[in-house]
Amino acid sequence: MEASLLRQCPLLLPQNRAKTVYEGFISVQGRDFHLRIELPEDLQMKNARLLCSWQLKTILNGYHQIVQQRMQHSPDLMSFLMELKMVLETGSDSTGISMKVMDTLEVALKKKQELCPPPPPPQFYSSLVEEIGILGWDKLVFVDTCLSTIKLKAEDASGRKHLLTLKLKAKYPAESPDCFVDFPVPFSVSWTPQSSLISIYGQFLAALESLKAFWDVMDEIDEKTWVLEPEKPTRSATARRIALGNNASIHIEVDPKHPTMLPESCFLGADHVVKPLGIKLSRNIHLWIFLWIVAFVIHINLMVPFLIKCVIIPNVHSLSIKYAYMSG
């Protein structure tokens, strides 16, 4: 039997002298599958135990009773293995589904291994916990179980809440984390191997301060005008479409770096409605420019009242005038 077993399953080898434990691989349709067979002292298959890999279990799915019957009636290990190979070949040939499922699972497992690299060293976690402690646990909104994704919160000078999402890499802090924010401008982080969460958070606060004027302007627009689009603007949104009445509206694009300067605008509506608005706008552009200069000199943000005046009584708005006429 030993010679026949070696010919049929050359990769399945005994693990002890009593030859009650065999472990290795069985080949089916050109593929090798891991399995382990534990026999009792009398070597009777009816009391044996079969252990196999998840790939082999996938192919045997639906054939458990047949395998159990073969174990009960096979006189020896060699006979059982021959029966098992027939079951495996029949099961995978009948519909091909088991093999396809197994291939899909193997691909998914490989992708998961690629997406989940080996865990970082212990000092990664200890230093990260220390940094969060220095920064303040009250600023922590979320952290995953691997400590690879961290979300920090902050408020700007006007009380608006903001989130900073960090994706840490295994080589942190040697490698800069990926940062995700809801800003209208790119958030570029200055990073060195000596940097930490504290330095990133400080840059985040500085960026919030630099965008305060922009968000103040956009909040005033949202509060005091009828904004048609977007319905739920994010902090990164720079455009608004505002209702003017008479089925007309104006689309404006505010520059985040210069929010109190004249925004680019475009009137939307019928010709007989928007054309007079454009004429009034052209005649009064100089008022916007003069008042903007005054506001800049005295460091007072006067943009919102002017914009509201423009929306309600369109007489000042943009250096670049565009029209979008509708039939009728």
TrEMBL record:
Per the UniProt entry, what are the Gene Ontology biological process annotations, in alphabetical order? interstrand cross-link repair; protein monoubiquitination
What InterPro entries is this protein classified in?
Fancl, FANCL_d2, FANCL_d3, FANCL_d3_sf, FancL_WD-rpt_cont_dom, UBQ-conjugating_enzyme/RWD
- Tell me the keywords, alphabetical order: Membrane, Transmembrane, Transmembrane helix
Give TM segment ranges.
285-308
The residues the entry assigns to the signal sequence are none
Gene3D superfamilies named in the record = RWD domain-like (3.10.110.20), Ubiquitin Conjugating Enzyme (3.10.110.10)
Ranges of residues in domain Fanconi anemia complex subunit FancL WD-repeat containing: 3-89
Q: Name one GO molecular function term.
A: ubiquitin protein ligase activity
Q: A cellular component term (GO) from this record?
A: Fanconi anaemia nuclear complex
The question of whether Transmembrane helix is a record keyword is answered with: yes
Q: A Pfam family name for this chain?
A: FANCL_d1
The FANCL UBC-like domain sits at 122-211, 214-288
- Keyword hit for Membrane: yes
Write down what this protein is called. E3 ubiquitin-protein ligase FANCL isoform X3
